[in-house]
Write a structure and sequence with these properties.
Layout: E1 11-12, E2 44-48, H1 69-78, E3 85-86, E4 93-94, E5 101-106, E6 112-117, H2 130-142, E7 159-166, E8 169-174, H3 180-187, H4 196-199, H5 215-229, E9 248-253, E10 259-263, E11 277-281, H6 286-295, E12 300-303, H7 311-316, E13 319-324, E14 328-333, H8 342-345, H9 348-356, H10 360-367, E15 372-373, H11 390-393, H12 401-409, E16 413-416, E17 419-422, E18 443-449, H13 453-469, E19 472-478, H14 480-485, E20 501-503, E21 510-511, H15 519-522, H16 536-547, H17 551-564, E22 567-570, E23 572-573, E24 576-581, E25 584-585, E26 601-602
Parallel strand pairs: 2-11, 18-19, 18-20
Antiparallel strand pairs: 1-21, 3-4, 5-6, 6-8, 7-8, 9-10, 10-11, 12-24, 13-24, 14-21, 14-22, 15-23, 16-17, 25-26
Subcellular location: Cell envelope
InterPro entries: Peptide/Ni-bd, SBP_5, SBP_5_dom
Pfam family, one: SBP_bac_5
Length: about 600
């Protein structure tokens, strides 16, 4: 759920369909053709932001209400990550050109890491040092509950100490030995060095000091920075945001969502901007954006999968069509604590019957016009990786409503008036299972995203196939933000536990960081475990993925979740179908759903 805003660990791209595999991305938008942008110059590009997802945050510390992936992309263009992971060079990995660190040396026991900073400077000429990293560390540690990327037990909880060795070296110690790949890609990559000599104060009139070095002081600093970040109209003029480390500086930022970036003349990193000016353009609807493409006023935009029949007309206008694949999965979470259907959902055979009734191949081909791939487990399958198990690859539950019906009738269900009804309650062989009362109808409701033809078509197709199994499937729609607010973790006794299934839309996929661990999604108590799924065996497997250095741990986790079905697996659509001016190249589209304007360039 490309949830641009929800919880830590994932970026739900409530964007055009929004953290990674080691597989290759589609080739970026390269090639010949025109060498000037829609604005008429080779030093400018117009990029279309997803409809109704206007940027609204600039601070390099994200909060739960501001997790739009566009915010992250803009922020990283201004303040480079310590360790940048992206796929803009063709495959996902450490992009050292756009990172402040040059090396990360783990101790032999994997309980600490020493990181080396490059010889880099802030745009005001001051050197970037270990103190700037410590500043971020102190602010986040003291205010972790406000940090959207926080998950209990993970960073910064598992970082027991920070020690500056000198200006360009520092050491972080962990609470135990960890999988180095996971620690680097999923934890250390979240660090965003911030200019301590400018930001370490409690108000506009205050002087910069070492305020952050006490918890109380760090809270005051956070209050100040957080308050300033809420003043969108002041982003371009507030001196606070002028000191940057990235390839771009901010030229303008409107409350309506239009953002203008211009190249940072003082940038001294390896990822220097190729195009001087970048205009990020907001749109209220995808139709308005499509009209802008037709008018030639957008260089890098998108169309819906349902518009692929118009591919030739866009090509005739000087564009290339480039599907943007993502390192993500799509699913419908069950609410295992729902008082009516929770006991049914807790029965593995019932979840198997539901999954057997989902024809993913046909949905991917027909509903998404081939711009989606079936997903049979917790690891993304759109790109090759060493993490996917054979069991997940082979699909343990291929579409068959006949097998689904038999599973239900073998477990005490009888069809009455087209709907399966529990006629043999109990937990023995041939019975419905613990907690499922006699007379319970296999009737479930999904709360689904409104306003999307693609989503509506998929829900209708699911309704039809479920009916063949004898499962009633009722569809209730609401705006995505409303779906999210009504689909949280709950107890059966709470009024908020009325939801049974939830779907955040075909733009609502879970985008992983580089290492696709499921600790926040499927571990007991995980911050993004919406349906309260809990399995002690799975918890052990997930814990092992964060500590074992072998990919086999991830494959065991993949196999277990493909079989146990914690959610209803659904096809994973492309992040977006990009429409790009011919001649714009130099990059691949990042499967982490970020855009990287410094990579873009006009070619001849």
């Amino acid at each position: 759920m490309s949830l641009a805003h929800t919880v830590p660990g994932r970026r739900w791209a409530l964007v055009a369909g929004v953290a990674v595999t080691t597989g290759a991305l589609l080739a970026g938008c390269s090639g010949g053709g025109a060498s000037s942008s829609a604005s008429g110059g080779s030093d400018t590009i117009n990029y279309a932001l997803p409809a109704n997802f206007t940027p609204n945050w600039i601070l390099p510390i994200g909060t739960a209400a501001h997790l739009n992936t566009n915010n992250s992309s803009i922020s990283q263009s201004l303040w480079e990550p310590l360790i940048a992971y992206d796929g803009s060079a063709g495959k996902v990995g450490w992009n050292k050109d756009n990172s402040l660190a040059t090396a990360a040396d783990f101790a032999d026991d994997s309980k600490s890491v020493t990181i080396t900073l490059g010889d880099r400077h802030w745009s005001d000429g001051k050197p970037i040092t270990s103190r700037d990293v410590e500043f971020w560390f102190n602010v986040v540690k003291a205010n972790k509950s406000d940090w959207a990327s926080y998950s209990p037990g993970k960073a910064p909880d598992n970082w027991t100490s920070f020690k500056a060795v000198d200006d360009t070296h520092f050491k972080i110690t962990f609470d135990r030995a960890y999988n180095q790949q996971w620690m680097l890609a999923n934890q250390l990559s979240m660090i965003r060095p911030m200019p301590q000599h400018v930001w370490d104060k409690a108000g506009d009139s205050g002087s910069v000091s070492d305020l952050d070095r006490s918890a109380a002081g760090a809270k005051k600093v956070w209050k100040y920075l957080n308050g300033a970040a809420k003043k969108i109209s002041g982003y371009a003029t507030d001196p606070l945001w002028k000191t940057v480390s990235g390839p771009y500086t901010l030229k303008s930022f409107s409350t309506a969502g239009k953002v203008q970036l211009t190249a940072n003349a003082k940038y001294d990193g390896g990822g220097k901007a190729h195009i001087k000016n970048v205009n990020l353009l907001p749109f209220t609807t995808s139709e308005a954006e499509k009209n802008a493409l037709r008018a030639g006023t957008v260089d890098y935009g998108y169309i819906n999968a349902t518009d692929l029949s118009q591919k030739a007309s866009f090509e005739a206008k000087g564009y290339k069509i480039e599907p943007w694949q993502g390192w993500a999965i799509t699913y419908m979470p069950y609410n295992f604590n729902n008082p009516q259907m929770g006991p049914v959902f807790k029965q593995l055979y019932a979840r198997q019957a539901i999954q057997l009734s989902v024809d993913q191949k046909t949905l991917a081909k027909v509903v998404f016009n081939g711009t989606a791939v079936p997903t049979y487990g917790p690891i993304p399958q759109g790109q090759k990786s060493s993490f996917v198990s054979r069991k997940q690859q082979d699909n343990p539950y291929p579409f068959s409503t006949a097998k689904a019906r038999k599973l239900l009738t073998d477990h005490g269900w009888t069809e009455k008036s087209g709907t399966m009804v529990c006629t043999s309650p109990g937990s023995g062989d041939g019975q419905c299972g613990k907690g499922v009362e006699k007379g319970t109808k296999f009737s479930m409701q999904v709360l689904s995203q409104s306003g999307s033809t693609v989503t509506d078509n998929m829900m209708s197709a699911l309704q039809s196939s479920f009916a063949k199994t004898g499962i009633d499937f009722h569809i209730k729609t609401a705006p995505v933000n409303s779906v999210l607010s009504q689909s949280g973790q709950c107890k059966a006794s709470e009024s908020s536990c009325k939801w049974q299934l939830s779907f955040f839309g075909t733009a609502g996929s879970w985008y992983f960081p580089a290492y696709p661990s499921g600790d926040s999604l499927f571990a007991t108590g995980g911050g993004s475990n919406f349906g309260s799924y809990s399995d002690p065996e799975v918890d052990k497997l997930i814990a092992r993925t964060t500590t074992s250095s072998s990919d086999e741990a991830m494959r065991q986790y993949s196999a277990a979740l493909a079989e146990k079905l914690p959610v209803v697996w659904l096809p994973e659509p492309d992040y977006q179908v990009s429409v790009v001016k011919k001649g714009l190249g130099g990059f691949s589209q990042d499967s982490l759903a970020n855009f990287h304007p410094a990579m873009w360039k006009w070619t001849k």
